[in-house]
TrEMBL record:
One Pfam family matching this protein: IclR_C
Keywords, alphabetical: DNA-binding, Transcription, Transcription regulation
Keyword ATP-binding listed: no
GO function terms (MF aspect): DNA binding; DNA-binding transcription factor activity
Limits of the HTH iclR-type domain: 22-83
Keyword Transcription regulation set for record: yes
Superkingdom field: Bacteria
Protein name: IclR family transcriptional regulator
Residues covered by the IclR-ED domain: 84-266
Length: 267
């Protein structure tokens, strides 16, 4: 009996494609992701057109997904998602997943840059600090994990709003007194600031909460995703360990955010 020693062929796709292609799995995920994005029933023919496939290619996959309870076929022949994926997702807290994904990258970042760093999300119209890693220095800026802050007035909150869907952002702002008490001119300037942050892919603020404070923030996750977070370096000016130019740390901060997003599956 001979044993094969050759390795399976590697996929030629680049970027975020897997190293080894699994066509059946990718076909199933394409169907689930498309139905999730469209949020309306789609027939086998409509799915095939949207995915650039032949209808016959999808028949067995649709039958399998329906049989496992992930899809339901309507009377008109259209397929729609059931609640099974939602129920599966509910067994794992997205915050717990984020925390596990962030632990090692954040610790490595802080050990390298010697500045404090915290991870935050939006929670009930406010900014919730999920975790904080303190700089290994005698004098440092620390933000308490579990604390709630204004999503409108903090840099972290602004970066999250800037990278949220416009309708979701506007709905939150309509409920917040910090935004509603601004003049029409101030609101216009605020929204322009958020747009600039979105285009830049980062946000920076000095003396926002107190004199001497500096924040540099980058988003984690995609604007289309339901789980989004922000990673922020919080620094004190004037300390002997502080970086004179915080922007020197932007590449490392972005790399850390990308690592967290990739590990958590929300990149």
């Amino acid at each position: 009996m001979t044993r094969r020693t050759d390795n399976p062929p590697e996929a030629t796709d680049t970027g975020t494609r897997p190293k080894y292609a699994v066509p059946a799995v990718e076909k199933a995920l394409d169907i689930l992701e498309l139905l999730s994005a469209q949020a309306v029933p789609m027939t086998q023919a409509q799915l095939a057109r949207a995915l650039g496939r032949e209808p016959g290619e999808l028949f067995r996959m649709l039958s399998a997904l329906e049989g496992r309870g992930y899809l339901r076929r309507e009377d008109n022949g259209g397929y729609t998602l059931t609640l099974k994926l939602f129920e599966l997702s509910r067994t794992h807290s997205p915050h717990d997943q984020l925390l596990r994904a962030a632990t090692a990258p954040m610790r490595e970042l802080v050990d390298t840059i010697r500045e404090s760093c915290h991870l935050s999300v939006l929670h009930r119209d406010q900014l919730l600090v999920l975790t904080q890693v303190d700089a290994p220095t005698p004098i440092r800026l620390s933000v308490e994990a579990g604390s709630l802050h204004s999503a409108v007035d903090t840099l972290s909150g602004q970066v999250l709003l800037a990278n949220s869907p416009e309708a979701e952002r506007d709905e939150l702002l309509s409920r917040r007194a910090e935004f509603q008490r601004k003049t029409a001119q101030e609101r216009t300037a605020y929204l322009a600031m958020l747009q600039k942050m979105k285009e830049d892919g980062w946000g920076y603020a000095e003396n926002a909460r107190f004199v001497g404070g500096r924040d540099l923030s980058v988003p984690i996750g995609s604007a289309q995703g339901r789980t989004r977070a922000v990673l922020t370096i919080a620094s004190l000016q004037g300390t002997h360990t502080a970086h004179e130019d915080l922007f020197e740390l932007l590449p490392r901060l972005r790399k850390c955010a990308e690592d967290i997003g990739r590990i958590a599956g929300i990149a």
